[in-house]
Amino acid sequence: MTVQAILAPLFAQVLLTFVLLVWMARERLLAARSGAVKGSGGSVRKIDWPEKAQKVSDCFHNQLELPVLFYVVVTLALITRQADLLFVCLSWVFVVTRLAHAIEHTGSNRLKVRFGAFAAGFVVLFGLWFYFAFKLYLVHALPGV
Fold first, then answer.
1. What number of other Cβ atoms are within 10 A of residue 14's Cβ?
2. Worst-scoring range by mean pLDDT, 38-42, 129-133, 136-140?
3. Angstrom distance (rounded) from CA 64 to CA 102
């Protein structure tokens, strides 16, 4: 696999995170300008944001949690040259689950649907780590492979 093919899903995930960051900043700025919130001098997480601003903020913060393990496994697979077509396909599936999670989270926010997207992403990410470790330790440890 080429470096570009391996990193493309990672860049897509990073793009999703940046889009949510800009959206969050916009929603918060609009809420502050409209007078819907007042500065507290403390943490912005303790401010009672309007619903849309809070949804986008929560979604952005979710992109800084589970995807961290995705960034690590992609980087390690690239460095160790363990990324193949299956790895890249699974990476794209993970990114699609994160996109689905983000769309649901910032939209109707139905917990069952959102959790389904999260759970699917978790399973795919676990599969990526398992596949990476399997290839690294078992397949390449066998003689003649």
1. 15
2. 38-42
3. 12
Q: Choose among 29, 66, 70: nearest CA to 49.
A: 29
| Count of C-beta atoms within a 10 Å radius of residue 91 | 26
| Cα 24 from Cα 124, distance rounded (Å) | 27
How far is it, in rounded angstroms, from Cα 3 to Cα 139?
22
- Nearest to 96, CA basis, from 58, 59, 65, 125: 125
pLDDT tens string 72-106: 999 999 999 999 999 999 999 999 999 999 999 99
Residue 123 phi/psi, 5-degree rounding, is -60, -45
Cα atoms in the Cβ-side hemisphere of radius 13 Å centred on 29:
6
Instruction: Classify 81 in phi/psi space as left (phi over 0), alpha (psi -120 to 50) or beta.
Output: left
Alpha helical stretches, state H, 2-135 = 3-34, 51-62, 66-79, 85-106, 111-133
Helix (H, G, I), strand (E, B) or coil at 28: helix
Closest to 15 in 3D by CA, of 102, 109, 74, 93: 102
Give me the amino acid identity at 40: S
